[in-house]
Amino acid sequence: MSNGAPYLSVIIPAYNEQSRIADSLYEIKDYLSKQSYRSEIIVVDDGSSDLTTEIVKFIDIYGKEVNEHDEGVLMENIKNVGKGYSIARGMMRASGDIVLFTDADLSTPISETNKLLEWFDQGYDVVIGSRNMENSVVEEKPWYRGIMSGVFNIAVNMVSIRGIRDTQCGFKAYRREAAHHVALLQRIYGFAFDVEHLYIAKKSGYKIKEIGVEWQHKDGSTLSPVNSSLSMLRDLIFIRWFHRKL
């Protein structure tokens, strides 16, 4: 850390998350308040049509008034663009030495953060949570999610990036330099953006580490078994084309 800047930036992409964003924010804030390092929280609302932004604002104002938590950063997309776009915006805004993004439903508990952070001291630039390592602790997925994940992982290894067992776990951390570099080059805004991040990072010479984490299935995902799968497979081809000069 230097000049009082935060060590960790936590980015939370959110789209119509009024039913769970409050619980997730309180859990993240409570966890971070117990750590020895400074941190910041950046919520990026992707054009929600519910009360997501109002809830985030209320929690920040209330927490600041009672001196329980620091006020976070709320960024709002004018319209729904995609999770990848929201995370890229958050990455460019982040000022922490390490930039972490996590799903709004906390499918991976925020307490798993330190499992990722310790690897940066060993020279890694990108550390990603994985549901497919031997030490991963994963609640059984719905059958269709398992099939989708298996087919997509095969396609990823064939078309874009080899050696990563789980590109889609929504729990990834980057050195700030790597985060900004990846976000600047990112072109995919849908669910395949994770693959693009790793493809850019690997082609750019950043060291990547995959770590087993806890993961629980949470209802309410906007992932469509058919439409999302087809668009993600299409985007794998686009990733190779967009970054063919790297």
Automatic annotation (TrEMBL):
Q: Spell out the InterPro entries in the cross-references.
A: DPG_synthase, Glyco_trans_2-like, Nucleotide-diphossugar_trans
- Provide the membrane topology annotation: Single-pass membrane protein
> Where is this chain primarily localised?
endoplasmic reticulum
EC number(s) per UniProt? 2.4.1.117
Note the superkingdom of the native organism: Bacteria
Entry's Gene Ontology BP terms: protein N-linked glycosylation
Glycosyltransferase 2-like domain residues: 9-181
A single Gene Ontology molecular function, please? dolichyl-phosphate beta-glucosyltransferase activity
Cellular localisation: Endoplasmic reticulum membrane
Q: State what protein this is by name.
A: dolichyl-phosphate beta-glucosyltransferase
Supply the source organism for this entry: Leucothrix arctica
Show the taxonomic lineage: Bacteria, Pseudomonadati, Pseudomonadota, Gammaproteobacteria, Thiotrichales
